[in-house]
Amino acid sequence: MKTSKDKNRIPEATMRRLPRYFLQIKRLLDEGSRYVSSKKLGDYLGVKGTQIRKDLSYFGVFGKARYGYETLSLAKAIKKILGLTKQYKMVIVGAGNIGRALASYSGFHTCGFDVKYIFDIDDKKIGNIISGVKVYDFNKIEEILDKGEIDIAIISTPENKALQAAQRLKDNGVNAFYNFTSAELNSIEDVFIEDAEISHGIFKLAHRLRGKWPRKESD
What we know:
Layout: H1 12-30, E1 35-36, H2 38-45, H3 49-57, E2 69-70, H4 71-81, E3 88-93, H5 97-103, H6 106-110, E4 113-120, E5 129-130, E6 133-137, H7 141-144, E7 152-155, H8 159-171, E8 176-179, E9 192-195, H9 198-209
Parallel strand pairs: 3-4, 3-7, 4-6, 7-8, 8-9
Antiparallel strand pairs: 1-2, 5-6
Helix pairs in contact: 1-4, 2-3
């Protein structure tokens, strides 16, 4: 979302690391760990302990001398920071291989993300059930969705259909997009966009193998 610059704005790199902290802390909780130091957490994730302490301090989260962070309290704090204390309704647009895989991903539901609808324009896919969710005709989206009903849309259409699909969803009240295509959606005003196009990461790995970047990216 386009906003004016704020000197107190949390760095984007910090926000990218927070989900990794949260998931690792959940693993530690599952293993029965009551406390974790920033150094130990950093060792798991390839991040310096000083960076973890700095990231968490932006939100007023501080560990205790000698003990570090209490894992359950830290998990709750990061969960609140990430906005995972409520349910989010999602749609997936594009019922191809990526769309089907995402619809079947159990991690969405366990973290409060509920896939309510899947859309496509292929008559052979419309009406199918994928992981308990029906595939609907995207051409009838305005008839199916109530305006503002959906929080997040996952775009997994062919590239040449992505921008048009996202714009129609925006017109229907959707303001957050997880883009699994190589299309650029930034021409859509006043929305949040996360790009997850697979080739982007592959390109970065190829560049690192040429010795241009460090093997681990810290920010």
